[in-house]
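Entry type: protein chain
Record version: 2
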Amino acid sequence: MLKKILSKLKSGKSFNNYYLLVFTVIVLTIIIQSIIQYSLARQRQDALRINVAGRQRMLSQSIVKNVYECKYGTCDYGQLRLEMAKFANANTSLQEGNDTTGIPILDNEEIQKNFDKLQPHLNFILKSTNDFNQLESIDLEKLSAESDQFLVIMDTIVNQFQKSSEEDIKTLMIIELELAVFSLLILILEIFFFINPSIKKMAMQNQKLKEIAWHQTHAFNGHMKNIKNYNHVLKIEKNVAHKEELISFLMEELTDLESVSDNMVKSLEKQA
């Protein structure tokens, strides 16, 4: 019976509130960690995209330099062809994304507009240098001017990528801060409205149980003492009538003792 009562006490509302608190903390922790991981992944993507965009400026200058060398001296045609391929592929990846390198699809309209402005200059550079047999007839002044225009627009795009990345980081930081504050608020509310009342209730129940135990124990001990006394007298008593009377008293004490035991169990059940 006592084990059953204790199990009921353990499965009370206070423990349900405790489980609710733990569950809430776990869920909020998972959400915050998910946002942090997403933020880190997004920062890696932004860093890669900014790096590739910055490299485009270097490639445009390197292509013009190699054309100059090929026209007026000696050059590595293989290196020039490789740089042109990287130049074209990077431009496509920055707009359409690239799963292999991890560059995401461009979803910024303002940056896309600048890529649209950039495209004619990029096309001129690639078209002018595509046929190596015609390198000597290339208008270097025009090529240099187109490269400079490409460089100016590409600088703007790189700055836009950088600014967009910083804004994303700020937004995620604000979300993380709001979640942290919300988590703290949830914990405070649960402590004040669930944990503290549960602790107070358990303390009151414990005090009542102690009082019940004290009273019932004294009553129990009193009846046990009477039973022992009656039993002792019964052993030495010779008169049959007196023995019957003692047995009657003894049965009354046993009945009272049973009532005390039942009252103790009922009191414990009420506290549960």
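Comment: Helices lie at 2-10, 13-72, 77-96, 109-130, 140-236, 240-271.
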